[in-house]
Amino acid sequence: MSKKATKRATRSGADERAVANGCYYDEGAAAHVVSFFEEHLRLTKGRWAGKPFILMDWAREDVLEPMFGWMREDGSRRFRLAYIEVPKKNSKSTMCAGIALYLLAGDAEPSAEVYCCAADRNQAGIVYRHASAMAKASPLLKPYIVPRDSIKNLAIPSSDSFLRVLSADSYTAEGIDAHGVVFDELHTQKNRALWDCLRYSGAARRQPLIVAITTAGWDRESICYKQHTRAMQVLEGSIQDDSFFAYVRSADKGDDWTSPKVWKKANPALGDIISIDDMTRECEEARESLSNENAFRRYRLCQWTEQEHRWLSMDKWNACGEPFDIEALKGRKCYGGLDLSTTTDLSALVLLFPPDIGEPDYKLLSWFWAPRDRAELRARTDRAPYLEWGQAGLLTLTDGEVTDYDVIRRDINAIADTYGIEELAVDRLFQGAQLCTQLTADGLNLAAHGMGFLSMAAPTVAFERLVLAGMLRHGGNPILRWMASNVTVETDAAGNIKPSKAKSQERIDGITAAVMAVGLADLVIEKPSVYEERGVLTI
Fold first, then answer.
1. pLDDT per position as a tens digit, 378-412
2. Among positive and negative, which fits the CA dihedral 352, 356, 362, 365?
3. Torsion sign over Cα 409, 411, 414, 420
4. How many CA atoms lie within 13 A of 36 on its CB side?
């Protein structure tokens, strides 16, 4: 085997620095893993079933050859952890299965322990089923491997080796001595317990390898995002880690997500495994529904989003953030929504001002309250910047552990003296009936507002269309923006939608209050056409 760093193998400054640290590229080792795939494995599904596992260029040249071809000075494999981030339907799971089989049977490791891991047993079983089917179809592996599919275990008795499933919902840390670990869809791991269990489980092995393969996620506190961040730092050269292999295929932040060129940039299998017609259809669905746009960006373009199923496009939301003259709104007719969520977290008042003569858009003003002790706790544990918002005058912090409704009552009355509140919507089932009674006695016109689909569906759609059409000015309030990025909607059997506090990642009280205010204004906003959204003038 040749021990050299060829021009093709040395692709980055990180590789060049690795050479300086004693690493080298072994073309024989790279060829060995490729031949294992292409000569000894067979595909088992779809129109390619029964055919040799011929690797696509990206999988061979950008992933497998460098991942297995680079060596350390002592002759062991350079990489100990590999992070591969590729959109869905690019044959990630099939490649994972092949890698797992290579670590089991092709890596010359005595008593190899290889684990297929995922957030739950069903997900982990996807890679296992691919691996089991390929092992049974392989002329090389079939005589040696004993499959026990009922317990998801492949064994090679002659070398005392096995491949088995391990999931976050069923693992135990005892007795694990992993030579290889394949994490499928790392972004679905709800916590880092399984990752931490396995991260150093191969410490006694000569060249253990953990391969995490995933699409983009949304939770920036997750173990997946931490690995994504490190991968990007390695790729950008901001850190040097000779043991970390990184491969990320995604659309960049400023890319036009509707462009086929961007689709190809993110999807190496586009046009081969992935149908361009299917991508076009899914893109059009994403253009028509902001709820689908988030999923398209994550699953098809590998872009990390701020929410699992975000309702509102933050690009559209930010475009509505230009400041406006608040003084000019004094005395103006408006409608309000008051969301008094609980006594221990945020409460929100939002006023909606319809356009005056000659104005093209609606305007929002927002106020928020929270108990100070709770805000200090959340600033420490949840990294929610409540204290910073309080210092900036964006959030009123009341003394103690629970919200002081007397302060809210005082502030609302002062606000009502400044602006012409026609009606103020409140949750008709809200437990703080005393505050509502007091506000009514103070002269405010309160309207009981239902929170179910019957009352919320129409104003939710109207609110969404205001944002889409660029007709809602919110002044860039950072708390309201945070809430807009948190909102997930739920859908009933008839296709109606409404904001869901239960499904949303974080607080959405201000958006809920704004939707209630829209409900009082009884708006009918026509949905913008696809051409208008694209900026194409129609006559």
1. 776 656 788 999 999 999 999 988 889 999 999 99
2. negative
3. negative
4. 24
Same domain, 334 and 213: no
In angstroms, the CA 138 to CA 142 distance is: 6
Q: Residue 76's domain is classified under what CATH number?
A: 3.40.50.300
User: Which phi and psi angles does 447 have, rounded to 5°?
Assistant: -125, 120
Q: Which residues contact 391 (CB under 8 A, 6 or more apart)?
A: none
Quote the tokens at residue 479.
């708390």
- Which residue among 229, 248, 267 closes a domain? 248
Query: In whole angstroms, how far apart are CA 20 and each of 14, 15, 29, 76, 445?
Result: 10, 9, 20, 16, 75
Query: Please, how many CA atoms are within 13 Å of residue 187, restricted to the half-sphere of its CB?
Result: 24
Q: What is the pLDDT of residues 424-481, one digit of tens each?
A: 999 877 656 788 899 999 999 999 999 999 999 999 999 999 998 999 999 999 999 9
In a domain, 370, yes or no: yes
Q: Are residues 216 and 334 both part of a single domain?
A: no
Containing structural domain, residue 515: 317-521
- Which residues, in sequence order, are bridge partners of residue 245? 82
Domain count, the chain: 2
Picking from 234, 172, 208, 215, the residue whose alpha carbon sits closest to that of residue 86 is 215
Structure tokens belonging to residue 206: 């000569």
- Residue 401 covered by a domain: yes
Please state the three-class secondary structure of 101-131 as a single string: HHHHHHCCCCCCEEEEEECCHHHHHHHHHHH
70: nearest Cα among 247, 243, 248? 243
Query: Where among 190, 215, 248 does a domain terminate?
Result: 248
Helix intervals (H) in 182-240: 193-199, 223-236
CA atoms of 241 and 251, how far apart (whole Å): 24
CA dist list (Å): 122 to 154, 168, 175, 253: 17, 11, 23, 33
Answer yes or no: is 73 within a domain. yes
Asked if residue 25 and residue 163 are part of one domain, the reply reads yes
pLDDT by residue (tens digit) across 142-160? 999 999 999 999 999 999 9
pTM above 0.85, yes or no: no
Q: Which amino acid is located at 349 in the chain? A: L
Tokens linked to 209: 């390898």
Q: Express as a percent the part of the chain with pLDDT over 90.
A: 63
Q: What angle do CA 51, 54, 55 make, to 5 degrees?
A: 145
**Strand 161-167 versus strand 244-248 pairing type:** unpaired
* Secondary structure (H, E, C), 404-440: CHHHHHHHHHHHHHHCEEEEEEEECCCCCHHHHHHHH
Neighbours of 315 (CB within 10 A): 10
Contacts of 331 (CB under 8 A, 6+ apart): 418, 419, 420
